[in-house]
Amino acid sequence: MHALTKWAFNNKAAMKIVVLIALVMGAVSYWKLPMEFLPEADNPAITIAAIGQGYDAKSMETEVTAKLEEAVQFVKGKTDMLSTSGNGFSQINLTFDSKTDMKEAKAEVEQAVDAVQLPQGVMKPFVVQFNTTMIPIAWVTVAFDGSMTAAERDRAEKDVVDAFKKIDGAGQVTLGGKAAPSVQIVPDAVKLAAKGVPVQALMGVLQGRTASSAVGEKTIDGASGNINVLAAVDDIETLKKLPVAAGVALGDVADVKLASSRESLTSLDGKDVLVLTIAKSATANAVSVGKQAGEKVDEINKDMKGVDARVLLSTSDMVTHSVSSMLREVLMGALFATVVILIFMRNFRATLVTIVSIPLSLGITLYLLDISGVSLNIITLGGVAVAVGRLVDDSIVVIENIYRRLQKEPFSIPLVIDATKEVAAAITSSTLVTVAVFLPMGLLRGSLQSFLLPFALTVAYSLLASLLVALTVVPLLSAVLLRGTKMKEHEGSQRFAKFLAWNLRFKWVPLLAAVLLLAGSVTAYAAMPKGALDSSDASNLNVTLQYPGETPQDDVIANGRKLEAWLNGRSDIDWVLMQNGNSSDNAKYGAVSSPTLVTYMVAVKKGADAEKLIGDIRAQRSGYPGADLNAGASNMMSGSSSTQVTVDVTGSDPNQIAKGADEVIAAIKPIKDVVKVQSNQEEKKPVYTFVLDPVKSKGQEVAAQLQALLNPIPVGSISVDGRDTAVLLEPMADPKSAAELGRLTIMTPQGPAPLSTVAKLVKTEQPSEFFHKDGKPYIRVTADVEPSQLSIAGKKIEDAVKKLQAPEGTAFSIGGASAQQAGDFADLGVIMLVAIGIVYLIMVITFKTIRAPLAILCSLPLAAIGAVAGLLVSGITPDFTAVFGALMLIGIVVTNAIVLIDRVKQNERRMSIREALIEASSTRMRPIVMTAVATICAMLPLVFGSTESGSIVSQSLAIVVIGGLAAATLLTLVIVPCIYELFFFRKSKRQRAGGAVDQAA
C-alpha cells in the first residue's frame, strides 16, 4: 500500500486524469445503469392454478388437484408440494431446492400438466414461476362512464390498451376484470313442455351452423376457381330463428338476449373499475417507463371522453424515492462529516481534503456496478446509504495522522508519505475486514443470494474505492492544501491517559463492569419479543374479509361493500381497491381464492399511523359475525405481512388427523397473545349428493341433465357487432330448498320423472377447502398472534405442541411466521460466524500474531451492549433487519480496535506494553471518535426518515448500528487495552518490574 501512495506522488499528472475519469465515468454510469425496483431473482417455487366454476371443493380435490399432483410428483428438484382445493378453484405450490434451474423446472411442470385430462368446465391450468422482473411497473385503474354503449366501451378499452403499448420500453400490457359479453338462452319450461321439446335439444342449436371451409377447385364457365362454404350467425335475431325441432324455432321456447358478465369484482372507492397492469421490457429503464405511464394517464383523461384513468401504484415511484433517499443520505453524510471534521480539527483545508473521498468513491462504485451488471434498485441503493457513513473513515484516519505530524514537524512530501504509511496497514486491514463481513453472502444460493449479493457488492465496492482514495488522492491533496498552513499542536488527552492507566492497573473493575453489562444486554435481548417487520410507517395495507364457504355470494358482496364504505369514510386512507372472485387474469399469476373471500388494498395517507389503522380495522370484527376480518402491512416483496403460526397435522387416516388437529387447537388456544385459532376443517359447506338407483337410471345421463338444469352451459359462439360472443344456455331451475331439488324433473328410460323417484338425496357437511401435503391430506391449524410478540408466542406454541402425544399414524410440524423468522435469524447467525472467522484470519495475517486479533474481536460483544440499549431506549422491536444490522456491526466495530492496536504494535518497538497502550489510546482517540461520530451522524437520516418497502435498510437496522458503534467506540478505548495487556500479562509484568528497578537505580 505504501508503494501505491508513492506511485501517486510520482505520477501527479496521471492522478489528475484518473480522478477526472472516475468522476465522469461515475456520472455516465449513473445515467446508464438500469433502474429496477428489485434485483433480478428467481423465486424457487412454481404455482399451478386451475378454475372450475360450479365445482365444489371435494370435486376439485378428486377430479383436478389429485390428477395434477400425480402428474408433477416426480419433477426434478422438487422439495415440497402443498395444495389447496376449494369451491371452484385448485392451487398447487411446488418448492424447489436452490440448485434447480427454474426455467427448466417450469418447462417440465408445464409438460406434465398439459398431459392431464381434466373434467369439462375446468379451465386449462396456469403454470406460474415468479421472477422479480415480472413485477409490473404500474397498476392503472380505468373507469368508464355508465352512459357508454357496449360498442363504445369495447373501443375505449382497446384504445386504452393500445395507448400504453406504445410507451417506449413497455412490455406486457394486460387489462383485467373486463366484462365479457355473452348471449344468454333462458329456456321456458312451460313452452318447452307445450311444444314437446326436450331441453337437450337447445344444447345443439348451433351445432354445424357456422362453417368456413374450402370444398375444392373446379373449372366453372371455362375458368378454374375455388369453391368455399361460408356459414355464420351474425346477430341475435338470426339465432332466435334457428330450429330446435320440427316447426319450432329457438325463440319460440326460450328468451334469447345479450348480457354482460364479469368473472370477478373490482372496485375503487366504491366504483367498478378495470385494472391495467403494465410491465417493462427486459432492457428498459423502470423509472422512464413509469414516468411515461403517468404521462399517458394524463393524456387519456384529457383526450378520451367518458374514461377516468388513475395510477394506483407505481414501482418506478418507489425507485425514484430510493434514488432521492440515496442522494439525501449522501448529502447529509457529507454535511455531518464536514461538521465533525471541522469541530475536531478546526481546519477548513483538512476538512476539504477529507470530503473529496465521497464523490470520488461513489463515482468509482457506480462504474463498478455498471461493469458488474448490477442495476440500481432499492437493495443496492440501500447499500450506498449504509456505506456513506464509512466512505470518509479511511480518509479521516489518513488526514488526521498527517495533520498530527504537521503539528510537530515541518511540512515536506516525505512526511506526508510517511504519515500515510503509518496508518496504511491499519486502514487497509480495517476496510478488508468490513468487506469480508459481506463475503459470506456471496456463498449463499438461490434467491437469497440474488437479493443480498448486490447489497454486499455495493458496500464492498464503496469501501474499497474509499480506501483507494484515502491512499492516493488524500495524501496528494494534503501535500497541496496543507502546505504552509500553521497548525496548533494537539496533544492526546492527559486526563484520558490517567484514566486508562488506572483501568490498566485495576483491570478487574472495567472488565467486570463490561461482563455485567454484556450479561444484562444478552438477558434483555433474550427477553425482548422478536416481532414481525414494523408496520407503523407502511404505505399500503392488505385487508381480508373471509366468510364460510356456505355463505351466499350476495351476502358476501353486500358485507364487502359495507366494509368498503367504512374504509372509504376514514380520513387516514387515500384510496381503497376492493376485489372478489376468481378470474383468468388473476389465475395467470397463480392467484386463485375462495369466492367468499373479499380482499382490499388500502393506501395509507402520508404521515398516518398504519399500526393504529390496522388495530381499528380489526376492531370492526364484531360488525361482521361469522366472518374472519384481518389486516396487515403490505409490501412488494412478500405481499401482506404475516403474523400467523401454523401447525400441520399429517397422516393417512382422516379421523386421526382430525383428532390431532383438535388436540392442537385445545393446547394453543389458552396461550397469551394468541388472538385467534382456527383450522381449515372448521369451514364446512353443505353438499347435496344424489345416490342413484342404477336399475332406474344412468348416472352419466342424470349428471349431464342436472348440469344443464342448474348451471350455464356454453353451446357455441356467434358474431355480434363483429365480435366473437359466447352463447350460454342458462339453467332452467333455481331450487331454493332440498325438497325443490328433489322435485326436479329429468328424462328417464320410462319418460319424464321427478329426480326423487330414481335417486336418494343425501346431505353432508364437507370442508370448503381441502389441503394436501405431498399428495396426502392434512389439516392446518392457524394461530394469529400479536405482531410484536411473534417470537414469544411462537415459542410457547412450539412448546405446547411438543408436549402433545400425536395420535397414531400422525405427525405435527410447526411453520408459519415464527418458524420463518427463526430460520432467517439462524441463517444470519451462520453468516455471522463465518464472517467472524474471515475477519479473524485477515487480522492474523495483518498483525502476524494470534493474541492481538483476539483482543480486537473482544470489541464485538461491546457492540452488543449498545445495540440492545438502542433498541430498549427507542422501543423498537428487533426484527430481521435489526439482526442484519448486527451483522454489519462486525465489520464496522472492529475497525476502531484495529486502528488502536496497529498503533500499539508500532509503539511496542520503543515502549513497554502499558506505555504503548496508553500512548496509542490517547493518540488514536481523536480519529477513532471522529470516524465513529461521522458514521453515526450519516446513519441518523435512516432513523428519522422513511425507508422503502422491501429494502434491507430500515429504522431498526440504523438504531442497532448507531447504538452498537457508540458503545463499542467508548468501551474499545478502555476495555480492549485491558484485554490486550491481559493476553500479554507476563511480558507486561516483566517490563513494569524492569522499569521499576531502573527507576530505583
The fraction of residues in strands falls at 15-25%
Work out the radius of gyration.
36 Å
Residue-averaged pLDDT: 81
CA(first)-CA(last) distance: 44 Å
Shape: elongated
Could you give the count of β-strands? 32
- SS summary, helix count: 33
What class would the helix/strand composition place it in? alpha+beta
Poorly predicted tracts of residues: 532-536, 636-641
- Please outline the major beta sheet: 9 strands, antiparallel
Helix content: 40-55%
Textual characterization of the structure:
With 1001 residues, this protein is of the alpha+beta class. Helix content is 53%, strand content 22%. It has 33 helices and 32 strands. Strands 1, 2, 3, 4, 22, 23, 30, 31 and 32 form a nine-stranded antiparallel β-sheet that branches. Strands 14-13-18-19-17-20-21 form a seven-stranded antiparallel β-sheet, with helices on one face. A hairpin with a 2-residue loop joins strand 25 (713-720) and strand 26 (723-729). Residues 532-536 and 636-641 have low confidence and may be disordered.
List the helices and strands and how they pair.
Elements: H1 2-10, H2 12-32, E1 42-51, H3 57-72, E2 78-86, E3 89-96, H4 102-114, E4 126-131, E5 138-144, H5 150-165, E6 170-176, E7 180-187, H6 189-195, H7 200-203, E8 211-220, E9 223-231, H8 236-241, E10 243-245, E11 248-249, H9 250-253, E12 254-261, E13 265-268, E14 271-272, E15 274-280, H10 286-303, E16 307-314, H11 315-345, H12 348-355, H13 357-371, H14 378-391, H15 393-408, H16 413-438, H17 446-481, H18 494-505, H19 508-527, E17 540-546, H20 553-568, E18 573-580, H21 584-587, E19 597-604, H22 610-618, E20 628-635, E21 639-640, E22 644-651, H23 654-668, E23 674-679, E24 684-692, H24 699-710, E25 713-720, E26 723-729, H25 738-742, E27 745-748, E28 751-754, E29 759-767, E30 769-773, E31 776-785, H26 790-803, E32 810-816, H27 817-847, H28 851-857, H29 859-874, H30 880-907, H31 913-944, H32 955-983, H33 985-1000
Parallel strand pairs: 7-26
Antiparallel strand pairs: 1-3, 1-4, 2-3, 2-30, 5-15, 5-16, 6-15, 7-12, 8-9, 10-11, 13-14, 13-18, 17-19, 17-20, 18-19, 20-21, 22-31, 22-32, 23-31, 24-29, 25-26, 27-28, 30-31
Helix pairs in contact: 1-17, 2-13, 10-11, 11-12, 11-14, 11-31, 12-15, 12-17, 13-17, 14-17, 14-31, 15-16, 15-17, 15-31, 16-17, 16-27, 16-30, 18-31, 19-29, 26-27, 27-28, 27-30, 28-30, 28-32, 29-30, 29-32, 30-31, 30-32, 31-32
